[in-house]
Fold each of these.
Amino acid sequence: MKINEKHLVSFATGNSPADKEGFLSKRGEVNKSFQKRWFALKGNLLFYFEKRGDRDPIGVIILEGCTVELAENTEAYTFELVFQGAGSRTYVLAAETQEEMENWMKAIACGGYDYMKLMVMELQKQLDEINAARRLSAATNVPAVTANLLDLDIKSQGQTRFNPFDNTEQKSSGDVDAFGAVPFNSNSQKQCEFKELHEKYGLYIEQKMAAHTSA
Amino acid sequence: MRTNDSALKQVARQIRVDREGRLLYRGPKESYRERWFRLKGNLLFYCRTTSTGAMLDPDPLGMLVMEQCSIQIEPYGDRPFVFSIQFQGESDKKHFFSGQNQKQCEDWVCALRASSIQNLKSRMEELRSRIKSIQGADPVNDMIVIPKPPNR
């Protein structure tokens, strides 16, 4: 399979800092003895060099679809990177101390793409919940509670049902999304001149686009 | 440089990927050839197509790692609906992709730009600091997310 190797090598040795670096012993595929190598983890790419300071890595292990497991054999501080599929190599790596082994296992597990994606989704969800609570708090003058939105539901009898999507006052400190922009509120009852609308929402759209293209 | 090829082929063969579709592809110093592209995470695989344009063989011909690269729409390209990828460390060498319509082209550009782990990391940091500035506490400290092994 063709891989743009030159780019990978440049990524390995480039200015971007490694998430973790250090010596590990790697067991050979054919020759079952362990060889000490310098490893550098960048995201989900685990590069290894013959020695520290080498310009070009001798190999890369792309950490997609693998599990990190403790090794069953008798070698101390050994762990494995297990890949799926017939003929896929299991990489056996050994650290020098228990702590180093645990640190590497954790770094590799957290370097995976799916894990990072999960974190982003989780944080986005948290931010959405915070914003929803703030919206409610702004409208009902109840202190914002992020935990259970149901707690803020109609506890006071006799009041008409509150619709959180009615925004009679649009405060500037309202919903703030991850780009720091104020979202368009289609429920606004105000009659605006086109010029006003253009200025207000044009900036928001511009910011979104700038964020999009710089991503 | 050695890579874990056979493991990567397994990734490429997965049923569910983030995005896939047919594009004409021209690597540096090559001519356009029709390929089936599959994006999984920050890995862009490409495979051969049949005469009717479907994916011929899930075993990929090649893979591009989507880190440290810049993706541009090429409005003055040699074909309509073209975008390019340029990788850092390979200046003056661009990879060109030609789609079937404007929307497909733009959708791919958006997906590819968002695909790098670098992008995920900066989004994470942005969300983290946003939440911290509102709530005062670092949300990551409270999150106990135990990485689960992928489904076998």
Note: The helical segments of chain A are 5-13, 98-111, 113-140, 194-214.
Amino acid sequence: MFRNYLKTAFRNLAKNKVYSFINIAGLSIGLACAMLILLYTKDEASYDRFLPGVNNIYRIVSKEVNPDGSILMQSGNTGSFHGPAFASGVPEIVSFVRFQGDYVNIKKGTEVLGQDAHRVDSNFFSIMQFPLVYGNGKTALQQPDAIVLSETVARKFFGSADVVGKTLQLQRNGTFKPYTVTAVAKDCPQNSSIKFQMLTKMELSAEEISDRMNWFNFFLNTFVVLAPGADAKQVEKKMMRFYEMDARETIKIVAEKYNYKAKAQYTLQPYTDIHLSKEYRADNGMVGASNPMYSYILSGIALFILLIACINFVNLTVARSLKRAREIGVRKVIGSDRRQLIGQFLGESYILCFIAFVLALGIAQLLLPFFNDLSNKALSLTYLFDVKLVSSYAALFLVTGFLAGFYPALVLSGFNPVETLYNRFRLTGKNYLQRSLVVLQFSLATLLIIATVVMYRQFQFLVSKDLGYNDKHVLTVPNVTGNKIAVFRQELLKNPNIEQVAIRNNGFNVTLARINGNKELEFTMDWVDADYLPLYKIPVIQGRNFSRSFSSDTASAVIVNEAFVKAAGWKDAVGQVVDFWYNNKKYTVVGVVKDYHYAALNEVIKPQLLCNNEDNFGLAVIRIKEGSAAAVLPFIEQQYKSIVPLQPYSYEFKDISNQRQYEAEAKWKKMLLFGAVLTIFISCIGLFGLSVLAAEKRLKEVGVRKVLGASVTTIATALSKDFLLLVVISLFIAMPIAWLLANKWLQNYPYRAALSWWLFAAAGAGVVLLALLTVSFQAIRAAMAKPVKSLRTE
Amino acid sequence: MIKITNLEKYYRTEEVETVALNKLSFEVKEGEFVAVMGPSGCGKSTLLNIVGLLDDPDGGSFLFNGIEVAGFNERKRADLRKHNIGFVFQSFNLIDELTVFENVELPLIYTGVKAADRKVRVEEVLDKMQIMHRRNHYPQQLSGGQQQRVAVARAVVNNPKLILADEPTGNLDSSNGNEVMQLLTDLNEQGTTIIMVTHSEHDAKYSHRIIRMLDGQTVTENILV
Ligand SMILES: Nc1ncnc2c1ncn2[C@@H]1O[C@H](COP(=O)(O)OP(=O)(O)OP(=O)(O)O)[C@@H](O)[C@H]1O
Ligand SMILES: [Mg+2]
């Protein structure tokens, strides 16, 4: 029996090539997407779970809550003090390890290379049991000059992994000192939040461990191991009790000195929760922090695609059943009962699904590099090939085959043999199901297309918006400090292709000061020299820029932006005083700059204060002549290497690094585009299949009409208009939903592109046009066919 | 074998109700060869489909081998049908995707005959119908007469006690038609009961008895032998 089913199924597939192609193409694309998403979610869910004993590892995290209950700050970071303090005060905390992201310069021959190197406590490997290839984890980090390398980094520096005992020159406090490799670890797995390349031992001064003021210092990750069976909630309570007792005096001092009224709350975050946490993200040396939103959106798109492909199968199979009605009738006459027919048709859908499934494995493999790029992962199909993934793929196959095959099997097996065998058979009813499914397909496709268009608009808006300063042809070079600054500037300016050189602090700094006597204001603080504002063409709208001719500028002058003036409520800003009471410094405002987007456009422009003090200078900003990059880059590098020999050289173009701020948006954009193209493609081939079948069904009608004198256009229109009507209905369903969703999403951006009606109109017109092309191709072909031929076939 | 009394069948469409069978009664004994004749639309096919358990009557009684089958559900009807009844249609109704051999084999598959036995039985029947040399052809590759021989082969492969033929020669020329009639006569002589609907007085002469119908009722019966 089974062989007979197989035979009919395969012959049917081979005979109806259009039908088979549409279904296999659609299903295999849908399945491939679903496979990739399963791989992705499997990877997300498996994050960090490979570590032995991981369920007892927690991170100490903290929240500062204002008296009114609002949250002042929450962070996964603690200081050097928290680990030892809590471990001594709470018996359930068995051990702790501190972990901090760091970066060192390493000298290799005459070259200086930058290298990520995390600072950890010496017991790191007894808590985080990453496997070692060489060396002993227990003793590896005992000596202050010990370093542990990953296999890849060992190969990078030494050309082999067996390098225990060899030394590297690491820069510490300005000079290079030899450090000895004590162990080499396997590269951390891709689904690990800790992916160290190099570990150094954390050295802490006695004061850092004993001074209770360090309760208020947050700069590293502290992981603790709880005793087996300990209840984390209870431990948190004990931690809070201990903190309130131990830090009581310190809290008072801080409250008085800084007018600090918030209250710290310490909790434990399970190590395995870190990867997907939004509140306490993986940072400070931990990597791969992921937004679960990505999983949802990706899964949603994959589900859409698969659903649309299944709809194609259902619609085409039911529409085509007219052709198979006779076969069904015959089988019933010969003795098949309904269950056997359901079995046969379900079987056929599974055969088709199986072919699609095999193809999908290939497609998924092909798409993987692209998908990895989109999802920031390094997945492979073989990696993670475990029982769970294989069984989820098997489930995917079973569910898809059922989803696609069950309804048609039910309909087809229900045909009345008496009718089918006497050519009296017609598909009854108005085909509401088929129509609704087509509407559903095109609504989903339209939704994704509009989402993509809106996303593109917003992205374009973000990257092309006037920032209030000129970031073109500007490059930045870090690590230019102290007396190197003047020499570097002087040498660079000798090159006619270099127009201006300025200097500023490297990085980003938020701080707080008093204004108007006692009002506290939070703001971004940057340190820049007198050339900075002119270089970026940032207009000074009140007062003046810093100037080398005012020697007092470096000590006491500041420039603020308009947002600062507004927040301070000043009428006349120049001459106002900004009071850093906690380190006894007072500055006077000498100028106001027009607001410019010093941060990404995801944020509104906040108060900014520019200071002229050169202690924090470190980033050279260089404006070059347009089109001179190729000529001038080697020159800058050469100058840097001779003036700043002990630092690694790197540079960045400002406009490119600005664009990089929208990497997330760029990824969403790609993802949506991808989803939209696939959904509309699969929807259209489905529509094509339906129009082929509809035209075939009406072959005789078309023939008769032609004999009676109808023109090609009238016939083609008659054949197409039903389908086009469905597509237009879809537009009316999808557009309001798309409008609401787009609006909601755009609320995330303080600066956003306008949602104009023509965006929707264009997207809608595009969909209709595609559908029209799809349908009319078939309709015109049917209308042009010679009537004699079609009449004779009946 | 078949005893029908006051059989009724209506077709309801949106506007009209057609009476296809109107309190029809007749009887067929085992081993008989009965021809049913009558003008187009008088209900011949409808009757045949009910006798063949493809369709439900709306009233009356239908005894098949002494068992009342009028109220059987689909499963039971399928079961009874596949073991006892073979069908031959005017338009052959072969499955295009299956070869001659596979078409004839199909009823055996549904009755659960083993593959080896199937091969023997199918070849035997194909041989008898003189279509063995075409066993691996598809229906589209055969002439009408050949297709109808395959259809007859398929109808008899399960050794049914009853064969129902609805205008079996309707799509055939006279020589092919005669061949098919000869096949049916041979089968009848070997003991199979046959009920055949036909418009041809010539074909009707092959039977033992002619039932004439008009407007869903039997009007006369001619006994030929
Ligand atoms: N499915 C149906 N729906 C509505 N009416 C039907 C249906 N099937 C048959 N009829 C009607 O029932 C009556 C009997 O039809 P039937 O097919 O049995 O006639 P017939 O004697 O076989 O005719 P012919 O010699 O043309 O084959 C006819 O009036 C026909 O129109
Ligand atoms: Mg008839």
Note: Residues 64 and 123 of chain B are 30 Å apart (CA to CA).
Amino acid sequence: MKMPTVNTLAFGNLKTRKKQYALMIVGIILAMVFSSGSMFLTSSISKGIKDITYQQNGYQNEIFFGMTDDTLKDGIESLDITDYADGENLGFLFSEDETAGTSVAKMSEEANEMYYTRVIEGRYPENAGEIALEEDAAVRMKLKAAVGDKITLNLKIQSGNEYLTETVKKTYTLTGIIGNRRNYIARSTVNSPLLPAAFVSEKETVEAGGKAQRITFVKYSAAFLKNDTCYDKLYNFYKSHSFLDMGAHMRYVEILFPYAMGTHDLSTSNKTAAILSVMLMLVSCVGIVNAFNANLLERKKQIGFLRALGTTRQQIIKIYGREALILSLICTPVSLIISFFGTKLLVKIIGGDMMFFPDWKMLIIGAAFSIICVMTAALIPLLRATKIAPMQAVRNIDMTRRMKNRKINSQKEFSMPKLLSKRNMTFSKGRTAAVSIILVVCILISGAGFAAAEYIKNDTFERKGDYQIYLGDSYFYSYTNLKKAEREMGVSPNSVNDILCSPYVRSISGHECRRAVVSIDRASDYLKLADSGNYISSSFVGGHNDYCDFTKENYLDILEQLRLEDLQNVRSGDPSVQYDDNYGKNTAKDDYRKAFNLEGEFAEASIN
Amino acid sequence: MKILECRNLTKEYLSGDGVIKAIDDISLSFEQGEFVAITGPSGSGKSTLLHNLSSLENPTGGEIFYNGESLKKYNDNQLSILRRRRFGFVFQSYNLVQELTGYENILLPVMLDKKKPDEEYINKIIEVLNIGDRLSHLPSALSGGQQQRIAIARAIANKPSILFADEPTGNLDGKTGREVLSLLKYVSHEFGITLIMVTHDLSVAEQADRILTLEDGKIVRDTKAEAESK
Ligand SMILES: Nc1ncnc2c1ncn2[C@@H]1O[C@H](COP(=O)(O)OP(=O)(O)O)[C@@H](O)[C@H]1O
Ligand SMILES: [Mg+2]
């Protein structure tokens, strides 16, 4: 027969008290799942935000159209460009409605990488005559084609920064669908038809008589973007190379965020996520401690006996440490797996643009934390038990247990045990209170966590719908003419039906809108950067207003240019536009529309 | 030769009402190889005395000497080692480790000492106690008598010099109790172990070399002292 070892004791404990340990393990796993799950969730949210931002906008900070080698050289010198990649616009494609078309580009591999050209169906074009379209573009052009189909489109041939006057018909094979970007970028800055949403292979060449327009995707150094002087430098650069007049550059979030999107910044949500995770982990640590305390008395008694037999303190630590280690080694992987898939599922259920991004660093931290947590939770109370003389521990436990089973106010009892049991009761009362407090805190924190998650999600994801379609004039510079702004435009019930026919559209919701363009004479920093020079566009859509320097004068300007006679009747305003008090604040969009006698529609659609 | 001695031993338990003197100024000594029975009514402090003598509890006052050496100088580690090498314990409620088989329980003190078991000696114990066919069972599968015999085997597995027994037959029926008792007597005699046993069964006590009677934490009768004074 074999000699027992420390392992025999540790494993023996696990083996013979299966039920107790099963309960304990379930408790520990629950606590761990709670903590690592929340970590996964928060890391998914924060990583998701970043990745989605890149997915929707590309990695570049800015896109220039029609750059020359000299301009680029100057840019590299004066703007601290860290990376750039090239593509070429070959022309402008459209089906029936010219305004719903898109530039078609041939991209270098690096450019596609920077632009985050992501094939979501089919493949990227490899041969001449093949084309891939952004989902968005396919819908906008009302193409009812699937991958593999031939499509015939009108092509305005690129001629440098212009187009040739004649339009040709071109037939392509649709090889793939690309994830949307154009609309996201267009929404986060100023819309431009130059931004390509159609891609052809590198074998494609510009049509006879034309000349490709260079697209340059540019990344600036982080230090450059952080520095406030970057706006002046950029402005000077645009001006000296006449990008302002041409409206031929597009910016990406990092420049835009502080201006167009308020003060939101990615690192804040990361920090929130980290703090949240730590808090949740601490809470679940309490859960683990509690799970261990479930059979604390039994263990304390066992320790008493083992000590009576001459087990030293170190040996006790060894035996129970091994047991705790085994427990944590069982619980940790199980709970990590559960929370991994659980979070994945949860993210799927929450849906939207949220994506599951398990952070492996977080995973390792979570695992280490869980193991440490289990070990401490298991060992601290037991270590304390070893401090009491061995038999005293056993007797105390026996005594309190006996007293619990008897009526406390029996006269025959010794007063000591009575008191002892009383003390025990107040002790357990204290613990009950502590546990309830912890539970409440737990609920509060997780509530706050979900609220924060919701906030982070809303703040970044909901800002941009899945999809957005403007029918009618959708280019910024076509709005610079107020005559155009007065023209009727929008989505008719018929066109809604049309859009719904497209295989990519799940539903359409939206409201009527009107874009107005206002001329102002005092440009803000942000406006200085706008393509339009001194024009701003204010889109009265769903509370979106990207421009804050909207003064009373601007407002009056609009009235004048729209030839509205009765100023008194105009009680209007977009909620997000700062109007003078006299003219009413935060009045409904409808009032605005009525007052301005504006018509036109705006549609928002969700993509499957 | 005095193997164990206590001088002015006092043990007090704190309670809200005040202090309970479970042992009240007891001075005693035990000879090597002696069989001593401690009797007295329930609550008189028998167990407390046994626990304090064997370093399972810390006395409030007084001093204990093992082989003439004061245990006051011993730290917790040294006391643990003393217990597992020199003392054996048999309790009323057996106190076997439920997770270990009979054999593993017997070897537990040896394992704690990181020694190689003396196979011959262990086999002899097993033979004397007649538990050879019960060794691979967990305690829960054993009868009370069998468990107590395993406990006795465990208590003497390390060849202790003193065996402390606290009502070892208290949980057993009359016949099994008598069997266990004679085994205890036999093994302690056979292996030259001092046996200090708490019992409130007078017929058991009468078999001892010496009977101590406790009341309210005080020795009210000591047959050895009586014999000496005669
Ligand atoms: N752990 C303890 N805490 C407080 N009082 C105790 C404890 N153990 C024993 N006592 C008290 O000490 C006295 C003696 O107990 P004990 O030695 O167990 O008596 P006996 O073994 O003779 O029945 C009793 O009054 C008992 O209530
Ligand atoms: Mg007793």
Note: The mean pLDDT of chain A is 65.
Amino acid sequence: MPMATASSSLHGTAAALHGVGAAASSKPRSAAPVARSVRVAAAARGSGSARARGGMVARAAVAANAVAAAESKSGGHELLLFEALREALIEEMKADPTVCVFGEDVGHYGGSYKVTKGLAEMFGDLRVLDTPIAENSFTGMGVGAAMKGLRPIVEGMNMGFLLLAYNQISNNCGMLHYTSGGQFKIPIVIRGPGGVGRQLGAEHSQRLESYFQSIPGLQMVACSTPYNAKGLMKAAIRSENPVVLFEHVLLYNLKEKIPDEEYICCLEEAEMVRPGEHVTILTYSRMRYHVMQAAKTLVNKGYDPEVIDIRSLKPFDLHTIGNSIKKTHRVLIVEECMRTGGIGASLRSSIIDNFWDYLDAPIMCLSSQDVPTPYAAPLEDATVVQPAQIVAAVEQICQ
Amino acid sequence: MAAAALLRRIPAARAPPTALMAARTISDSTAPLTIETSVPFTSHIVDPPSRDVTTTPAELLTFFRDMSLMRRMEIAADSLYKAKLIRGFCHLYDGQEAVAVGMEAAITRSDSIITAYRDHCIYLARGGDLVSAFAELMGRQAGCSRGKGGSMHFYKKDANFYGGHGIVGAQVPLGCGLAFAQKYRKEETATFALYGDGAANQGQLFEALNISALWKLPSILVCENNHYGMGTAEWRAAKSPAYYKRGDYVPGLKVDGMDVLAVKQACKFAKEHAVANGPIVLEMDTYRYHGHSMSDPGSTYRTRDEISGVRQERDPIERVRKLILAHDLATPAELKDTEKEIRKEVDDAIAKAKESPMPDTSELFTNVFVKGFGVESFGADRKELRATLP
């Protein structure tokens, strides 16, 4: 059994996983700045259903950095983010024969970002399926397969291509559990790289989290480190709900040491990256790194920002976020979505609805510009939020 | 003839009709009967099945009963809609019953069926009951989707009926996904993915067919060609209305969709083919008497003569009635009695469905997510109505 720490529990998730029909209440969590990471190994491995019946209790890392791996009993191992995703896939596919992967070039080619490299050799052509370039239909097929009890993982080679499958994702994936009165579950994972890359052009630099966020029934998470990439991928595969996992084109080669033992991350929890006192900075995916870069400058200037990687884009982890706001009273959101209708817009709205009384300053939101991403490098840089802007924003908020 | 020997019929001059009516029963013989389909099958890159269909008197009478029940249900739904008890969209299947009934006769409940929004009768064919159907149409708790789906979202998981879909054509990739799961699990069953002549022009069908053919999935794409995509006639929407040929490298069969025996034969053939060789396309030449939905009178783009002409000459129930009478399997009076029973059954079901209450407001938030594995929230901020966060 793992080295469990007493207090952190997850919004009733633990209880819910053990079959107790928990209401949405959860135990209070302190926003303790002590970096602690808790991992729980899976209980009995075996059939998918045995696992599903409560073998896993998921806990999030409070600080996802080297501390996590350092506490690992056997030292951990270093790998790149795409390898972490791959490890997650391999572990889940070994454990549960109903897990399969659909996507373009995921099989023989090994995946355009190598996330599925070697899987076709390991698991065969029936479980790692090279699809033709037909997003609408292979996403629909994934939903159909999920309705019939498989657990497909559908890869969009670039998230932007999944716009072609929007109808399947919205109407079938998101809504079938509801419109069938609960008869069908859609335990599908839809994943792929998105975000602004290096001069990939407008159509290959899209941020679909803003388009998908209002689809009812869909859960969305964004990974940002090898540790949370592996953990979130595993959790997404095990979830009975449809989950969209947003990866980022520029983060695949991040290197980190992750634990050797099995672990998963909670889908609905945010990650405390850097505890602080002066301002709460909420971010996710690649912008986390811009924020941390800005944080170095801010610390030199005497500021103490609290950085939270929200990870869960739908639903938001308002417990972690709220506790932080209650402490700092100032909020800056840094995201890569467009200003209009982005995740930041919804987050701002949720914070105002829930934590208005705790705010000492208007919530600031730094987002990408409402323009198609240009090709030329300086223009592309100007499209997204840069560390200097983050520093300036914090200085403004903390006046 | 063997069939005649098994008949139970009252010779006219024997005893007072009323007393004997009660003792007499319609034929329930299971002796085989071979009947020729109305027209031969037309095929595309495959040898068509024989025109001679084996059936039994019992089966024919079941066909009559099931189709009459479906017909009656749809007509009753029409009245309920006009009485404003059913709202929104209501797409009726009367005229097309032979497809639902013939298909069901050829397959088992382990095979899967998925269709679009004209799904009430397929739900019944898959074992759905009248009360759940009417309750769902009226948005009540006793409905098959708990009142939350409506006319276009009937499902029956335990009978492998996957709905019930409102977006034209989107169910076909889902159907190929079901077929994928069947192959993945080595089930030796097939999936029938139904769509209309309007949906036949959707790109995702060709995508799904390509993948099904590549991966040799047991998918059977069934085009219920009622010749009108809502208000647009097929010749105005499709350059090539030979839908059974649209599979190109995938075999196809054109079937008289108003002949329940032809449908049964074709579906049996298709299932054997699909499980062994991969996808096949079936085109059912059928017709709907109602308009596209209850908001469409159905007469602005076709003549009343056409509608009544089809009803005269090709009505599926009348065809079976003629067969039954020609083979002396029942008397006209007995069939009329069956129809009366059915009418009462439907009326009773409607009355029972009306008793079911509307869903409770709390049902608004159930089944958005599967509870117990994490998310219990409904929006980005986890709020349910006006609950406060702890």
Note: Chain B touches chain A through 65 residues (CB under 8 Å).
